[in-house]
Amino acid sequence: MDQLPNLGREHEMLSAMGLSGIEDLFSDIPEKIRTDGPLPLRPPQSEEEIWADAQRLLGVNIDLDSRPSFLSAGLARNFVPTMVGMLATRGEFLTSYTPYQPEVSQGMLQAMWEFQTMISELVGLPVSNVSMYDSSTAAAEAITCAVRVKGRKATQKGVVYVSEFVPPHKMSVIRNYTQGGGIELRPLKHGTDGRIDLEAAQEATGSCAVYVEQPNAFGVMDEGITRLKEIIGEHTALIVCVDAVSLGIMEAPGKYGADIVVGEGQPFGIGPTAGGPIYGLFACGKDYLRQMPGRIVGQTVDEDGLDAFTLTLSTREQHIRRHRATSNICSNETLIALMGAMHMAMLGPEGLERLALRVAAATESTKSAMASIPGVEVVESNNPNFREFVVELPGDARLAVDYMDRNGVLGGFPLGDWWESMSDRLLIGCDERTSISDIEALSTVLSAWVEGVNK
Amino acid sequence: MSDIFSFNGAEGTGWSQPSPISGDAISTVPISLRRADLPRWPRASEPELVRHYTWLSQRNFGIDTGFYPLGSCTMKHNPRVNERIVQLPGIDRVHPLQPEHQIQGLLSIFFEMQEMLEVCSGMDQVTLQPVAGAQGEFAAIRCIQEYHKDNGQSHRNKVIVPDSAHGTNPASAAMCGYEIIEIPSSPNGFLDLDALREAVGEDTAAMMITNPSTLGVFEPEISEAADIVHSAGGQMYYDGANFNAILGKTNPGLMGFDAVHYNLHKTFSQPHGGGGPGSGPIGVREHLADYVPSPVADREEAEDGGATGDGYRYFWRTPDKTIGKVQQWHGNAGAVVRAWAFYRRYGRELELMSEHAVLNANYLRHRILNPESDVREKIPAMPVDGATVDFVKHEFTLSMSPLKEAVGVSGKDVAKRLLDYGYMSPTLYFPMIVPECLMIEPTETESIEVMDKFAEDFLAILSEDPSIVTTAPHTTDVRRVDEVQAARNLVLRHPCEK
């Protein structure tokens, strides 16, 4: 056992305390609730054995880089600069706690203040926190935050309109987070073209908030969203969930009236990691600042007047405000946000733009390749898409995914898993690493499957 | 000072990337949606950024820097192989929505972790989805809420917490829509059973409590408390923040709890990362098993021996009455894998970990509270133990009130002075029931020598000239930080003006 410095020295410590055995220290646990015998678990292993088992078990998994992959559905198969992992795992960052002692935590505090700045610039809003768990909890807490801010003046009390194309797993998180506050979620309708129905959106006027995604879950870039704020008015918060990378070429939502912007930070900083740890973005206008969830870093000075950073506005938080806190969030995703900050800093403005253009180019190329397959129809092909688009197949998309899987291609996500009515639809996701040969591989296997169906 | 926003290289400075696979990609974006101005991010080369972040790291204190006796946070050493393991493509480059047969290795690790946590806690079903302790609390209280609803008990609208509870407990229950009843503790932070009897009733949904308490003391009447809550029709919730103290000795199931959360970032060494990521799985007894967040890992016998060679095929299962999801994927899988690697080091000997955590806490407490007489003579007023019990579990509290009264040195002053000596400060002013509280948790990964030296330095501070201590720290990167100004004059981002 290489984790216990005092192993074999127990007696020395016990006798210093005048005790004879370690069991003495547990004598305060009543007999009737003592564990009976040793834990029925496997024997301990050495580091070498653990590493070997990890390689063996994780080696059984098929990773996204080992084959052409078009599975995105909210996460990005990205490439993270090598510097990021090497620097973020420096022990001073990796093994530190929440920076409650600013005098010895200036490094992480400054890095998070820089993160706040970069996110603020990215989304076009003045305030960002240091991360939420992921985009779903960021979305959910944006809704509860908006209700706290807009609730009093709302004529539709406690009502929030949510885009009906928010995927069910994300919607489930939103429902869990909002049910306790008595918030009523109503669907914000989309037209048959997949875009927000702006006429129907007028219903949302007077509600607490409207939640939309840009691009939406089908990758559609919706121009109508830029007009939403005008329609719903100043007393209703506009919450926009973004694909962070898309903002290299798409307008910052803060510029078209978003009050709160949330999103998945994952494309900056970390691989998909089987869904976590990733991090959620949360940025807002000044009106929301005192009701927002999560940690915030502010700049100040020390006793000698030197620039310094510290956590601020803590009176919103659970450790001070307890049940009246704006959120229960305590542990967050700081280290992953740090990795995101490093990645963003590495990209720089033009690097971000190029990254977005690479994703856009891959999306467009894949989309045209799919459009040319007989029997495959790109749904609403006139819509502009970023990262994702949907195709209609001549049969159950799950079967197509299985077939492609057997032929070495991760062909996308069968939308029937989210909405049964869309069982013939396949969500195809692209990224900066999608290559021409990947697209050819997808075209080949999908064509072969379609031919098989049509036979 | 290294200021990232002063890096302003030529346009395009930054990370090199391949070209887009086709030209004119910008034309795919509708004109009205095109970005007018790029974000004013720094333009920096790799050498500049490597130096910037290295400089920042040197201005940050981690467990690797020095002793980190932060009570309630279990800042134990983070084994390095765990970090190497999560870099493997079989976790880093995996999508949560991949077909099950492509992620059998990951599912088997999830299953093993669920089983291990069930065994260690005496629970029947674990889900690994919650990504932080607070989210675990929230998820478990949601399960209890739905359970009550299904049993025609939705009028139960109150959750009881002791006044020594972590702030997340009341905050999580309030987010579920519950009213919070706070009950006072008796001396030593023990539960006041009379206060509890008075608080419970027809409207009690649950009680949330951690044991050992936030004073590091094992609650001897925990079974009686569980009986009181259960006879009123409420559920017992165990905050697993202090699980490190009891593994293999007792468990929440034996104590009478119905639901628990675990902090993989405390007990199972997921690094704290400056505030996260964490991982807060929950475990529940059988009557709540159908409610846990979906999906959970499950398995069935495989005729072909299974992909991992252990005879099983693994799959995701949706519990019948699941509350749904609290994170949109499967939780912090990377943290689960690290915790798995940590668990594998101890296996059935996890008890050894808890024994050493408790041994270290008691040893350090003894060292601090029983100084040699020549040391003691110089100290104007000794701290008072937050609990007058014979033994603590994994942590202990000290009230610095006597010193404050004697010479005006507060708990905060001592905490800040410890920074000068190269230590992280203990947890300050928590729990609130101990005045001028310092809460100290050495964890099992500190040596006798480190603790002896800490005790010596701690006691030396108590006898220092108060003018030195009250103005500490003196040797840190910055001196005492003006938090009032930070909150009054909010500067939450760089202006980015050239």
Structure description:
The complex is a heterodimer of chains A (455) and B (498). Chain A has helices at 10-16, 47-60, 82-88, 91-94, 106-123, 135-150, 168-178, 198-201, 228-232, 318-321, 334-371, 397-406, 436-454, and strands at 127-128, 159-163, 184-188, 209-214, 237-243, 260-264, 280-284, 297-301, 307-311, 377-378, 388-392, 413-414, 425-429. Chain A has two domains: 65-78 and 348-454, Aspartate Aminotransferase, domain 1; 83-343, Type I PLP-dependent aspartate aminotransferase-like (Major domain) (Aspartate Aminotransferase, domain 2). Helix content of chain A is 35%, strand content 13%. Chain A has 13 helices and 13 strands. Chain A has 455 residues and is an alpha/beta fold. In chain A, helix 9 links the parallel strand 4 (209-214) and strand 5 (237-243). In chain A, strands 1-7-6-5-4-2-3 form a seven-stranded mixed sheet, with helices on both faces. A four-stranded antiparallel sheet of chain A has the order 10-11-13-12, with helices on one face. In chain A, strands 8-9 form a two-stranded antiparallel sheet. Chain B is of the alpha/beta class and 498 residues long. Chain B has a domain at 82-349: Type I PLP-dependent aspartate aminotransferase-like (Major domain) (Aspartate Aminotransferase, domain 2), CATH 3.40.640.10. Chain B is 34% helix and 11% strand. Chain B has a seven-stranded mixed sheet, with helices on both faces. A four-stranded antiparallel sheet of chain B has the order 10-11-13-12, covered by helices on one side. A two-stranded antiparallel ribbon of chain B has the order 8-9. In chain B, strand 5, helix 9 (252-255) and strand 6 form a beta-alpha-beta unit. The longest helix of chain B has 20 residues, at 350-369. At the A-B interface, helix 1, helix 2, helix 3, helix 4 and helix 5 of A face helix 1, helix 2, helix 3, helix 4 and helix 5 of B.
